[in-house]
Amino acid sequence: MEKTMCLSAAMKLLRSLDEEKSEILGKERENSSYQVVSGIEADPPDYDFAATQSQLEKLDETVCNIRHAINQANATRPVGDTGFTVDQILISMAQMNSRLAVLQSMSQKPKKSQPRFMGALESQSVVVHTNYDPDEIKTCYRKLREKISNLQMALDLHNLSTNITFEVLVE
Predict the structure, then answer these.
(1) pTM for the full model?
(2) Cβ-count burial of 147 within 10 angstroms (0-12 exposed, 13-18 middle, 19+ buried)?
(3) Any bridge partners for residue 165, and if so which?
(4) How far is Cα 139 from Cα 98, in angstroms, rounded to an integer?
């Protein structure tokens, strides 16, 4: 059966299918073998190897179909008016977040500081000076934070408004 849904719903379906698979694997671990105390009759637990394998194969193929459709959409469809695809935005956001961490660290450094040293430099007076304008760092930090926020909102809207179609083999 072919299904169409937005990217966000497809990602939620993936989580649900992963939970379903974990549940099937748990039942398989629990029911694929059993112990019998000698002299006492016991009924084997309800377990059908072939049916379980069939369920797992259908789940895996469905997950593969969904992930493929998501990956195709992420690599080919532009996100709003950004001019970028999802994969480009995710890479850019990772780079921007790294840069943001550096700017945040720089913004917290005092203009001058005197670190304490042990050993040979202990008797020396060392002063560390920052070589930048803290206000410029804060401005750059705010602009970058806003850019990341705007990209995240564009991604959220994209995930809710972009539909994908894929084959579902499980109910």
Answers:
(1) 0.79
(2) middle
(3) 4
(4) 17
Burial profile 109-133: b = 16 or more Cβ within 10 angstroms, e = fewer: eeeeeeeeeeeeeeeeeeeeeeeee
Long-range pairs for 40-44: beta carbons < 8 A, 24 or more residues apart:
none
Rounded to an integer, what distance in angstroms lies between the CA atom of residue 48 and that of residue 55? Answer: 11
The answer to whether the beta carbons of residues 96 and 84 sit under 8 Å apart is no
* C-alpha dihedral (142, 143, 144, 149), degrees to nearest 10: 90
CB atoms within 10 A of CB 93: 16
pLDDT by residue (tens digit) across 78-119? 999 999 999 999 999 999 999 999 999 999 998 988 877 666
Handedness of CA 127, 130, 133, 135 (dihedral sign): negative
CA distance 71 to 60: 16
Other CB atoms within 10 A of residue 80 CB: 15
